[in-house]
Amino acid sequence: MLYGLDVYNARLDKETGKPQLQKQVRLFRNGQLIFTGQEVTFDLANQTDMNQVNIVGAMHLGTELFPGEYVLQLIVTDALAQPKYRVANQWIDFEIVK
User: Fold this and answer.
1) Segment holding 10, helix H or strand E
2) pTM for this prediction
3) DSSP per residue over 41-76, as a string?
4) 3-state SS assignment for residue 92
5) Whose C-alpha in 2, 23, 44, 56 is 20 to 30 A from the C-alpha of 92?
6) What domains are there in the chain, each with its CATH number?
7) What pLDDT is stored for residue 42 in this prediction?
8) Would you say 6 and 57 are in contact if contact means Cβ atoms under 8 Å apart?
9) Mean predicted lDDT score pLDDT of the chain
């Protein structure tokens, strides 16, 4: 499964001019957490606009998942932001059919 999102107005490091973002993926089935990915520092090498960072990724679902309804949650942490604004998350639901 491929996914993508944009992060707007992340805090920029005063020395490098770049944000310090980490992403994490979590997968739920029927409200139960079934997978938690590691927090990964996002590679900014191909980014041209640091005020709108494009994050793309892929997750191999495998053949072992049962048909049913799932939720993919993406969590982004901005290490430079104030604690109140440090974490943002978004989710999307999808269904696996046989």
Assistant:
1) none
2) 0.86
3) EPP-TT-S-TTEEEEEEE----S-PPSEEEEEEEEE
4) strand
5) 44
6) 2-96 (2.60.40)
7) 84
8) no
9) 91
